[in-house]
Amino acid sequence: MTNATKPFSNRLAIVFDFDETLASDTFALLLEDLGLDVDTFKQQRVQPLLDDGWDKYIARAYCLVEESKQRADNDKITQARLARVGRELKPFEGVPEMFDRLRQCAQDLVEDVEVEFYLISGGFIEMALNTSIASNFKAMWGCRFHYGEDGEIKFIKQQMTNTEKTSYLYYLSKGMDIEKEKDLMFAYSSVPDNELRIPLTQVIYVGDGASDAPCFAVLNQNNGIGIGLYKAGHSQQWSQQDKIDVNQRVANIAPPDYKGNSELMQSLTLAVERICKQIALRRLSIGE
Questions:
Q1: Which segments of 42-147 does DSSP mark as H helices, in order?
Q2: Distance between CA atoms of 65 and 259, rounded to whole angstroms?
Q3: Helices of type H across 70-204
Q4: Phi-psi group of 111: left, alpha or beta (phi > 0 → left; psi -120 to 50 → alpha; rest → beta)
Q5: d(CA 265, CA 268)
Q6: Which residues fall within 8 angstroms of residue 135, CB to CB, at 6 or more apart?
Q7: Structural domains of the chain, ranges and CATH numbers in brackets
Q8: How big is the CA angle at 79 (ends 154 and 83), to the nearest 5 degrees?
Q9: Euclidean distance between CA atoms 65 and 56, whole angstroms
Q10: What is the strand order of the sheet 11-16 is part of?
Q11: Residue 78 per-residue DSSP state
Q12: Are 145 and 184 in contact (CB under 8 A)?
């Protein structure tokens, strides 16, 4: 039998953003936990830095560090506090069940297929790591703080900009090596197709807006699948398709409703089915 002309892997990856994709905005939840008005904090503390050219995530982190300095010793922003906010966070309805539903969908078509879930977030990952759904992810990446000996946040030590998210798509595709996690040369290095752990054609990315556009572009260029999300009543952010670069367009857009037979769950199911049928076809071509 003739060998397949495309690489074979029996894995597929489903990659999610976090804030406004799987749960509410964690930055806003943290501000509320601190007893701060979200809009006032953003407008009076964060926005002036953005207007001065600061990166969004560095600006947010700086404002939180400065806020913590002003607080009483028993009310600081600490690693323990971020973890508690994460534990108290409730994912959108249907999210906890979604993981097994998609695994089962894949295995109904290809019995031994491996479905892996990843998280690439621009938010502070400490909160996401402590949510009730964290155990479903093979890896979770996002912004991280440096903490003092007392656990208080001191500075941001790792940010996750919109474009940096794409390096992690290449990273999971090539095969993760903890020693190379921050090695961009590794992330963007050329690897033969037959050595890829998960071809990007077998990656689904789900995100809620402009911050995810670079990831959508990478998957479009590599025949992966992008699914865009919008808040109820705010679909206009995706409505002007002529202003969105053709490489950044998505397969479908839907509100973040993971219940039952919602449009989003239909979209995810169809995307998983497409990739599984692709895997089954390639398996036939190599005679397995």
A1: 47-51, 56-69, 79-88, 95-109, 125-129
A2: 38
A3: 79-88, 95-109, 125-129, 164-174, 184-187
A4: alpha
A5: 5
A6: none
A7: 11-24+91-143+158-285 (3.40.50.1000)
A8: 150
A9: 14
A10: 153-158, 137-147, 114-124, 11-16, 203-207, 225-229, 252-254
A11: B
A12: no
Pairing of strands 114-124, 225-229: unpaired
Pairing of strands 252-254, 225-229: parallel
Pairing of strands 137-147, 153-158: antiparallel
Q: Which of 30, 39, 40, 38 is nearest to 68 (CA)?
A: 30
Cα separation, 103 vs 14, in Å, equals: 10
- Determine the pLDDT at residue 246: 47
178: its two tokens? 């903890």
Q: How many residues does the chain have?
A: 288
8: tokens are 């074979």
Could you tell me if 15 and 118 are in contact, meaning their C-beta atoms sit under 8 angstroms apart?
yes
Give CA–CA dist 276/23, Å, rounded: 27
CA 20 to chain centre: 11
What is the Cα–Cα distance from 56 to 49, expressed in whole angstroms? 8
Q: What is the pLDDT along the chain (288 residues), one digit of tens a residue?
A: 445 556 678 999 999 999 999 999 999 999 999 999 999 999 999 999 999 999 999 999 999 999 999 999 999 999 999 999 999 999 999 999 999 999 999 999 999 999 999 999 999 999 999 999 999 999 999 999 999 999 999 999 998 988 889 989 998 998 866 555 555 555 566 777 778 899 999 999 999 877 788 999 999 999 999 999 987 655 555 444 444 454 546 778 889 999 999 999 999 999 999 999 999 998 887 765
